[in-house]
Specification:
Blueprint lengths: L2 H19 E3 L6 E3 L4 H19 L5 H16 L9 E5 L6 E4 L3 E5 H6 L3 H16 L2 H7 L27 H6 L5 H17 L5 H17 L6 H4 L4 H19 L8 H8 L3 E2 L7 E3 L2 E4 L4 E4 L5 E4 L3 E5 L5 E7 L5 H12 L2 E7 L7 E9 L5 E11 L2 E10 L3 H13 L2 E2 L3 H4 L4 E7 L4 E2 H7 L7 H7 L7 E2 L4 E5 L1
Parallel strand pairs: 3-5
Antiparallel strand pairs: 1-2, 4-5, 6-18, 7-8, 8-9, 9-17, 10-11, 11-12, 12-16, 13-14, 14-15, 15-16, 18-21, 19-20
Helix pairs in contact: 3-5, 5-8, 5-9, 8-11, 9-11, 9-17
């Protein structure tokens, strides 16, 4: 075929694909190359939503849920995509975060709800997340192929061969953890100002909240505020830009009396669970306790640790091994072991039954040979406790397995029924709203509430204030108790 004809055909195919895949951005009005239709985008959100809720768990607070739904729908109606069927949800996580996935699904953690100090801060972030949806940022990131598998434990790079045995993050969770570039974040800031201004809030408050996030990140060394803040422009830049944009929108909309609603918001979040919820399991002095499921087990010293509603995961800092606890299903413990062997085509080294601290258990030693001659070795304990069956799995490369076997066995053989009353009855802290009876500083107010010195800076950040800041009588202060 002549070269010219080949070129013409390639150009023709490219033109057809361009016409099919180009869509007009709802915010900018410009055409852009995307790889999914709006219907596909909505379907992706619908499929992701149950996966996200399963991973985090939903935070049950009907009044607070009704509030974010009301404000979300009000803001969505003035957005660039008012016809989407938006859903707004609070998830049960202490991490300070908010995120959105395609199709109009927006999530706030209880951790971020605790750190807002007025409705206007909340509204600015709500508008920011709706902006990610209206500008189709997740869809554009999909196009850029930036969505990848994430390690099971943050900061731990697993041996690639081990990943076959570890449940990968679902597509929904990958979308939830997707970060955007600074240009997209700037655009969402602009949209957050626009949308929150259009429903009557003082958008300047939005910038102040990102100062709170910056302080939290500095205090925690960046570990508790991951991509949500790291990909955003600097707080100094945002303060200036957001303030200018807020004034511009006030003039455009002729707003003379914008809302902040500090007291109303603080009263609304009183009783909110603050920090880690021990009812979902907690790590203390090297032992993991689960008061609701009534079990305990030791965690290997200096290993990374991650607890979620679906599983507990542990790994050494070098990422050469993995130890996980998950729920298991099957007619019997031995059937579960046989099913695991069949699913992964394992060579059984030993299979036995014995009690573990009085609990029925089946223990499986097995190996999976790799094509390059190496292998992965597994030690799995299937344990039944109070009608629930658990799978404790430790795995490492065959050549390194002996280095981690004692750590695996220490955890598995010491899985036991939780009986200590102080652990069984452990309750989470909840936010209490205190009204100052006299003029004072935040530091003095917190110490008067019995807060230890080690927590003063944490609580100053929680309140969005400085410790030496003077507060008049009647000021409301958040105190976890």
């Amino acid at each position: 075929m002549p070269l010219l004809l080949i070129v013409e055909r390639v150009l023709l195919v490219g033109l057809v694909l361009f016409q099919i895949s180009c869509a007009r951005n709802p915010v900018t009005g410009k055409k852009q190359l995307v790889l999914m239709s709006e219907n596909q985008e909505i379907q992706m959100g619908k499929e992701s939503d149950p996966e996200i809720l399963a991973f985090f768990g939903r935070y049950e607070d009907p009044d607070l849920q009704a509030f974010i739904t009301e404000k979300g729908n009000e803001m969505a109606a003035v957005s660039h995509r008012p016809n989407l069927a938006y859903e707004f949800k609070i998830v049960d996580s202490p991490v300070i975060n908010a995120f959105a996935v395609p199709g109009g699904f927006v999530y706030f953690t209880r951790g971020i709800m605790a750190h807002f100090n007025n409705e206007a801060e909340f509204a600015g972030v709500l508008g920011h997340e709706i902006g990610h949806v209206t500008a189709r940022h997740s869809v554009i990131q999909q196009r850029n192929n930036l969505l990848g598998q994430l390690g099971m434990i943050a900061g731990v790079v697993l041996v690639p061969q081990l990943s076959e045995f570890i449940e990968p993050l679902s597509q929904g969770m990958q979308l939830a953890l997707l970060s955007f570039g600074r240009d997209a974040e700037r655009q969402s800031d602009e949209l957050g100002v626009e949308y929150s201004s259009k429903i009557g809030y003082d958008a300047v408050e939005m910038a102040g909240f990102f100062e709170t996030l910056e302080r939290q990140q500095d205090k925690a060394g960046g570990s508790t505020v991951p991509e949500f803040l790291s990909t955003h422009p600097s707080p100094a830049e945002r303060n200036l830009t957001v303030a200018q944009l807020a004034e511009t929108w006030k003039e455009k909309l002729n707003l003379t009396d914008t809302e902040v609603n500090r007291e109303a918001y603080l009263r609304r979040i009183e009783g909110l669970v603050y920090g880690e919820d021990p009812r979902q399991g907690f790590l203390e002095k090297g032992v993991f306790y689960h008061p609701e499921l009534k079990f305990r087990f030791p965690v290997p010293a200096d290993w990374s640790f991650q607890n979620s509603p679906q599983q507990v995961q542990m790994a050494p800092k070098n990422g050469e091994a993995v130890l996980s606890l998950t729920l298991a299903s099957g007619e019997s413990l031995r059937e579960m072991a046989n099913q695991l062997v069949e699913n992964y085509q394992l060579e059984v080294l030993s299979l036995s039954e014995e009690k573990v601290n009085g609990l029925p258990s089946v223990q499986l030693y097995a190996e999976q040979k790799q094509e390059n001659g190496s292998g992965i070795r597994l030690l799995v304990y299937f344990i039944e406790h109070s009608g629930t069956r658990y799978q404790l799995m430790g795995l490492a490369e065959s050549g390194n397995f002996s280095s981690y076997e004692s750590a695996f066995l220490s955890t598995m053989k010491n899985f036991s029924v939780l009986k200590e009353a102080d652990k069984l009855n452990r309750q989470p802290e909840r936010l209490r709203i205190q009204t100052l009876s006299r003029d004072t500083t935040l530091k003095q107010a917190l110490k008067a509430q019995g807060m230890p010195d080690a927590r003063l800076e944490e609580l100053a950040i929680l309140n969005g204030r400085k410790l030496d800041e003077s507060l008049p009588a009647g000021t409301l202060v958040k105190v976890p108790k």
